[in-house]
Amino acid sequence: ATPMSIIAGVGRAAEFGVLVRDADALQRASTLSTLVFDKTGTLTEGAPRVVDVLLFNGADMHTVLRQAAALEQGSSHPLARAIIEHAALPALPEIDQFRTIPGLGVSGILDGIPLLLGNPPLMAQQQIATGAVTQQLEQQAASGATPVLLSAGGKIVALIAIRDPLRKESISALQRLHKRGYQLVMLTGDNEITANAIAREAGIDRVIAGVLPEGKADAIRTLQQQGQQVAMIGDGINDAPALAQADVGIAMGGGSDVAIETAAITLMRQDLNAVVDALAISQATLRNMK
Ligand code: ADP
Ligand code: MG
Prior knowledge:
With 290 residues, the protein is of the alpha/beta class.
């Protein structure tokens, strides 16, 4: 191997806004078979908006939005921002015993009432019945929205549907990657029905959904054990272990510092076409060395 041409490849990548940590990373990027994408903030804009609020058990809209937004004050999740913005309240009350449950949601007590806000698995874990809202959950998810449930005093009082549109270049960039022969996988903590709806729109081959943050690296390891050479493309703190486990970790520009520190490749452009550039440059560089 001539290190000179690798150095030239790293330089060429930089011209395209692709920062490659070392020669090894460029080499590994030339032999990948599978690309695993985080959903939120990588395939999607990562700027979710509330699109629907359904009420149950005699709840009223003001109370529900006040409870939900108060809970989300303590969360840094993108869904939290969407709920607080939608509630648009001038002041929010303090929550007692606030807790974040990673990959599931948040909980706490307001005015003496125990509250839970998160996905159906969170409600199942806390033994709150969701049978009465199953149909609405499936309907929202099938349309590509993420449904989160609010329970107050042990009863479901609201379903909040949140939508995070695909990045404008996702469909075309994934098409280019398909043409180059990669298997495309989506890895997400979101529910399977929503994930499948978004994957179909984006042109993803395979969905791994409902994965808790600590399970993302395991999912990458499983693909590797099946003989795949895997790149993980992600932006979040949650993605760091998976970025480290992958043969090549690729961090989206504008993502969390932890993701960027962990990844072998960082995209300075917040554009999935930079993934295509990075992989094309690595293949061209390694081809020239043979
Ligand atoms: P992702 O892989 O999409 O980043 P996460 O693991 O962060 O997913 O979250 C998975 C799911 O957990 C979300 O889709 C949501 O249903 C639920 N969840 C997590 N945090 C919150 C929160 N602060 N408020 C409401 N729901 C949440
Ligand atoms: Mg993300």
